[in-house]
Amino acid sequence: MRAQLTAAATLVAGMGLLIVPRPVGAHHAFAAEFDGDKPVQFTATVTKLALVNPHTWIYVDVKKADGTVEPWAIEAGSPNVLLRRGITRDVVKPGLQIVVDGYQAKDGTRRANGRNLTLPDGRQLFLGSSGTGAPYEVQRPGVDTDR
Question: What pLDDT score does 28 carry?
Fold first, then answer.
């Protein structure tokens, strides 16, 4: 009898944990933080690639005309989506010079939501999430993607 009560109490407590609201992460919509009317495009040098959820961050240094350097943080899609598009630590390495197209943060800081990243060889990689205008994923040899 005592074992049955203990099992029932454990079950009720476990179910209670499932219905307790949990804090939501800092995931946000584009319009909450970035301004579609503030496009940015610049050549930059990658300093760090952070493949973290819910968004990847590419940290870059932008050399201005007067020779000073500004650090920028570029927000991109989730690591899983970017990895399927060919964006890996072996492709986007510190020291690599890239061209970034995106949209600046509403608060005017040096943060941007990245749309495209252009590599030195001219390849253009889409940084955003899936949806209207998003390209198809990188095709792997031998994988049929015509569905």
Answer: 54
CATH topology (fold) of 30-126: OB fold (Dihydrolipoamide Acetyltransferase, E2P) (2.40.50)
Q: What DSSP line would sit under 9-57, residue for residue?
A: HHHHHHHHHHHS-----S---HHHHEEEEEEEEEEEEEEEEE--SS--E
Question: Do residues 84 and 126 lie in contact, with contact meaning Cβ atoms separated by under 8 Å?
Answer: no
Amino acid at 36: G
| Count of CA atoms in the C-beta half-sphere (13 A) of 42 | 23
User: Can you read off the two tokens belonging to residue 2?
Assistant: 């005592």
* Predicted TM-score (pTM) above 0.85: no
Q: What are the average pLDDT values for consecutive 10-residue runs of the chain, which has 147 residues?
A: 62 51 50 84 97 93 96 94 90 97 93 94 83 45 46
Token duo for residue 91: 């492709």
SS3 9: helix
Among 101, 90, 87, 96, CA closest to 137: 87
